Amino acid sequence: MPSIQLHKHFSPFLKRTARPSHAARAATLLLASAMLAPATAHAGTSAGAMPVAATLLENCVVTATPLVFGDITLTDGAAVDSAATIALVCTPLASYEVALSDGANASGGTRRMKNALSADYIAYGIYSDAARTLPWGDSSGSDTVSGSVGLTGLATLTAYGRIAAETPVAAAGIYADVVTVTVTF
Chain-centre distance of CA 13, in angstroms? Predict the structure, then answer.
């Protein structure tokens, strides 16, 4: 290390101290600059719009209770009536049309329940009115049921079933059919 020559008059006032290392000086500079820096370094702000949108599609969900005629004999010559409920839960104000298929065992446009253990059938009908004069089918605009669910989005329809009085007596057993309920909205 080179020696420093000091004037003899200043030497009693000067004390020789060790020089700080480069790392210590760098740390001191970094600390000093951090204390002088602003808390956040934002150059400015800008605002814009974010569009938000959704398209609500009309929708309906349909459920139906079973149309159960119960225990019957068909020997007394009287008609046997029953009813089932068809419930719609739809988008509010949706229009609907409900169609009923002829069932799994239909023949010639006549709904039939089949005996589970034999080849016997019992014919029946489903109607849209309590008097059982308006057959409920699947011909759009002809024998279907149409309406609107209103603000609640709910509709309850009744399907009126009848085994006609003149139905021939069939073998004893359990008879069943499956009718498809279709709602168009």
Answer: 90
Does 20 have pLDDT greater than 70?
A: no
Q: Is pLDDT above 50 for 10?
A: no
Per-residue confidence (pLDDT) for residue 84, from 0 to 100? 98
Query: Residue 88 and residue 85: Cα distance in Å, rounded?
Result: 10
Checking if the pLDDT of 104 tops 50, the result is yes
Instruction: List, as one string, the DSSP characters of 81-141.
Output: EEEEEEEEEESTT-EEEEEE---TT-BTTBEEEEETTSS-EEEEEEESSTTS-SB--S-TT
pTM for the structure as a whole: 0.73
- Pairwise CA distance, residues 119 & 116, whole Å: 8
Distance (Å, whole) CA 183 – CA 185: 6
Instruction: Count Cβ atoms within 10 A of the Cβ of residue 121 and give its class: 0-12 exposed, 13-18 middle, 19 or more buried.
Output: buried
The β-bridge partners of 61 are: 89
Residue 74 backbone zone (phi > 0: left; psi -120 to 50: alpha; other: beta): left
The amino acid present at 162, given as its one-letter code, is R
Q: How does DSSP classify residue 38? A: -
